[in-house]
UniProtKB/TrEMBL annotation:
Keyword Transmembrane helix (UniProt): yes
Record carries keyword Ribosomal protein: no
Keyword list, A-Z: Membrane, Transmembrane, Transmembrane helix
Ranges annotated as spanning the membrane: 9-25, 45-65, 85-106, 126-145
Name used for this protein in its record: DUF2798 domain-containing protein
InterPro entries in the record: DUF2798
A Pfam match: DUF2798
Domain of life: Bacteria
Provenance organism: Marvinbryantia formatexigens DSM 14469
Amino acid sequence: MPQNKRESLIYTVMMCFLMVFWMSMYNVTLHMGHFGLDTIREGWIGFPAAYVYAMLFDWFVVSGIAKKFAFRFLVKPESSTRKKIIAVSCCMVIPMVFVMSLYGGLEACVKSGDWSALFLIWMTNIPKNLVMALPFQLIVAGPVIRKLFRIAFPEGKILA
C-alpha cells in the first residue's frame, strides 16, 4: 500500500488507468452487444475523458471519504494488511461505480440527445458495473497494480 501522498498519487494513476480501461471495454461491449476491434476502438476513443473524470473524482472526492469510512467502521490500524486492502478497495469501488455509472449515463445522453433517460440509464448501469468492477478490483486489478507498483517503486524509495 502507498506510504505517502506521492506514492498514493502514482498508485492512483496506475489503478485508475487499469480500472477505467477495463470498465470502458466492458461497458462498450455491453452497449454494442459484442466484443471486437470496433469495441476496442470505441472504448479507446472514450477512454481519455473517462480517465480524467475518474481521476478527479477518485483523488479529490472518493478516496478520502472511502479511507475514513473503512478505518472508522471496518478495520483498525492494527488490522492485517490484507483486511485493510479489502476494506479500502471495497469502499473505493462502490462509490466509484456510482460516479462512473453516472458518467456513462451522461455520455449516452450527450450522444443521443435524450436527457430524459439519464436517471434510468444511471440506475441500470450501477448493478451491471458493480458485478464487474468489484471482483475485478479485488481479484485482478488490485493484486496486479500493487505488484507492478512495488516492482517499479520499492518500499521506502519514493520520498514524501
